[in-house]
């Protein structure tokens, strides 16, 4: 006995299968957008933190390298009133730039010769090659026996140095200017460099002992 199609009726309360409604699609798109925005925000924050840490690391590394270099030369300082050309002086020059100049036995291949004694000069000057009015740490080194050494142009040692302060300890007092020709060698030198780390200048300070001969 066959079934009469006309006698088949849909079950009450059961909807025929269909797609998502517009409201469901909008809700799904909104939730997905919020999740993507959250992920993007986290990624951006992590990326910025990584860049800041890298920038900070470069600034701290630069300060450490400069202090190591200056410290090695100060600890190798040589001055004798009976040795022409030997010197140790620093403070502020005629251009109102902070400077340090000394003869040292801690020479590099650049300043070799002259019985192992070189003249080393540091000066924090206006960076004339940069687009902004910032300062650059200049350095010059030449053999004590090189008569043409003082005429050589200094080279750019480090940028991003906002300021440099020097103090010299006589054994009882601190001075901002020093000249061994009249004062002899100082006992210690305090060097403070303000290095740009990211967007902020950060001061670094060290005290270097000068050998007593």
Summarize the SSE layout with pairings.
Elements: H1 22-75, E1 88-92, E2 98-104, E3 118-126, E4 135-143, E5 155-159, E6 161-169, E7 174-175, E8 178-179, H2 180-183, E9 188-197, E10 200-209
Antiparallel strand pairs: 1-2, 1-8, 2-3, 3-4, 4-5, 6-7, 6-9, 9-10
Structural description of this entry:
This is Type II secretion system protein J. Keywords: Cell inner membrane, Cell membrane, Membrane, Methylation, Transmembrane, Transmembrane helix. It is found in: Cell inner membrane. The chain has 213 residues and is of the alpha+beta class. It is built from two helices and ten strands. The strands form two sheets. The protein has a six-stranded antiparallel beta sheet. It is elongated, with a radius of gyration of 35 Å. The mean pLDDT is 83.
Short recap of the structure:
With 213 residues, the protein is of the alpha+beta class.
The strands making up the biggest β-sheet line up spatially as 5-4-3-2-1-8
- In total, the number of strands is 10
- Tell me the number of helical segments per DSSP (H or I, 4 or more residues long): 2
Please tell me the overall pLDDT.
83
The residue fraction in helices comes out at 25-40%
What proportion of the residues form beta strands (DSSP E)? 25-35%
> Strand pairing plus helix content: what structural class?
alpha+beta
Largest sheet: 6 strands, antiparallel
Order of helices and strands: HEEEEEEEEHEE
Q: In one word, what is the shape?
A: elongated
Quote the distance from N terminus to C terminus.
126 Å
Low-confidence sequence ranges: none
